Structure formats: structure tokens, C-alpha cells
Amino acid sequence: MKEVGPLRTALFVPGNRPERIDKAVGTAADAVIIDLEDSVPISEKHKTRCIVREKIEEFKGRKIAVRVNAVGTEFVQADLNEIVMKGLWGLMVPKVEGAHHIEKIHRLLLDQEEKKKIKPGSIGLILLIETALAVEKIFEVISKKIKPKRFIIVAFGAADYALDMGIKLTKTGEELEYPRARIAVACRAAKMLPPLDTPFMVDLKDFLALEEDALRAKRLGFGGKLCIHPNQIEIICRVFSPTQDEIEYAKKVVNAFQDAEAKGLAAIQIDGKFIDYPVVEHSRRILEIPHDN
Fold first, then answer.
1. How far apart are CA 48 and CA 46, in angstroms?
2. Which domain holds residue 279?
3. pTM of the full structure
4. 182 and 96 together in one domain
């Protein structure tokens, strides 16, 4: 199973636009998600799979995931037949609503990995939670154990969730507080990586609203955010990255505590603040987050 660090940004790009894929790969996004689902018309899915395959081959070494069509559709098997290959980092699976969806895509992936002599479990899964049922069953869904293990990250899709609920997405996001909190808590309880928040789609030109939306997700426990335009990447990266002061303080905490442990101490003070194991673990997690400082 691949090791995958925390992700701050994952940029969507339509699979039928090769020039946009090239530009997306050249951005600072931590991962690129090439879409074979909603942004690709049914009439273009066949030829788009060929384009996506070529781009995965061209950009080996980049974290590239492909959003395939939902499990149970007539398209998903053809998607996997064409795009599962060495160099593919992950699959994004839309409309996940039960553990059976994870089991199904896992078995389909294992078949492809075996046929193509790819190490079993080496391709990860990004699970899109985007319906009321999925939100309600989230812990049950992500607690499904699969063997061999593969990395799994949860992502929230608010557009389909809002459609399912019959509600309207707003800039201030009060309507998303419950699903966001439930998803983040479930990921922590399942000892998974922090989830990726939904793209901000209400107004692509309102960068202040984008930043505030990202901060809301971060406060609830999300580790990053999906992006639908390259101009969202810098702001989201900054929100989900520790500041230089936070990094320096985290280093100070970890180093001081290591010295204290060597002397038989498990609780110390730094700058008047009480430091024990939970504080140290929080500092270590800060140092694991990608940052540009």
C-alpha cells in the first residue's frame, strides 16, 4: 500500500480536455483529478478514456487520480479496463453510499491490478460522499476493512448533496455545517487521514468567500479542499498550511519534549503553556502537513 501524506488541494480537470490536463499538472495542486464522470458527455466517454490513459502515462510520478463513473453504472468497467495502469495514483469513486460500493470497486481494482501485473492495493481510493444517505452512514461506510489494504481518503461533494436535500448552496455555508462535521468526525474515529472538503462553487471570483469557506472546513477537521479552478489553489494551500510561526513553535515543542522525556519528564511548560503528550502529538501533525514556508 502506498504511503500518502496529508493533501491540501486536489484539482479537478475534465478528461476530454487534454490541454487543460497539461495545465492542471503544471499547477501547485497536491493532486490532480481527471474526470470521466459528470464533465464528460456520454457520447465522448470512449475517446476520453484514451486521452486519460495517455496523460497518466505522460505524467508518471505526479499524483493523478481519475474520477470514474459510479459503481453500478454501465461505464465503470470500461473506465477501469482503460485507465488502470502503472503510474495511476488513485481512483475517485462518486456516489458512494455503502460499504458494498467500496467492496465492489476494491474487487474490480484487484482484478485489474492482477491482469496488468500491478502490486495489489497500490492504487488508492478517494470516496466521494455526496448524498444524504452517504452522510448518515459515513462511519459504517468507511469502516469497511479491505485486504490487501489500499489508502483511502474521503471527500465531500456538496453539489449533489444539496440537490439530494433540495437546498441551495450559499457563500456562508451554514447549510453544510452538519454534513461537514459528521464526515470529519467519522474520519477521525476511523483513524483515517483528514477528509477533503467540497469545491467552492458559489462564486469563483469571490476569493474572500473562498478563503472563509476553506477556514470553516479546516476548523471542523478537514485537511484540504477540492478545487475546480487553478486560481483557487494558492488560497486553499495557504489556509491548510501551517504558518512559519506555527512550524517553528511545533519544532520547539517536539525538541523540548524529547529532551524532557530523556530526563524522565512527561509534562513541561514552554512560554507559560502546559505541554504534554497530546500537545506534542498535535505539533508532530503540524510538521507533517505540506507547506511552502
1. 5
2. 244-288
3. 0.87
4. yes
pLDDT at 279 over 80: no
Q: Are residues 276 and 146 in the same domain?
A: no
Considering the domain architecture, whether residues 224 and 279 belong to the same structural domain is answered as no
Q: Average the pLDDT over each of 166-180, 186-200, 244-258 and give the range with the smallest value.
A: 244-258
* Long-range own/partner contacts, residues 107-115 (CB < 8 A, 24 or more apart): 108/76, 108/77, 108/80, 109/80, 109/84, 109/150, 112/80, 112/81, 112/84, 113/84
Torsion angles phi and psi, residue 15, rounded to 5: -70, -20
- The rounded percent of the chain whose pLDDT value lies above 90 is 76
Strands (E), 39-79: 64-67
| Residue 234 and residue 248 share a domain | no
Distance CA 51, CA 64 (A): 14
* DSSP calls for 81-149: HHH--TT--EEEE-S--SHHHHHHHHHHHHHHHHHTTPPTT-SEEEEEE-SHHHHHTHHHHHT---SS-
- Co-location of 39 and 109 in the same domain: yes
Amino acid found at 63: K
- Prior bond to 148 cis, omega within 30? yes
**One domain, residues 204 and 82:** yes
Q: Is 4 part of any domain?
A: no
Strand 124-129 vs strand 152-156: parallel, antiparallel, or unpaired? parallel
Q: What are 135's three cell numbers?
A: 452522510
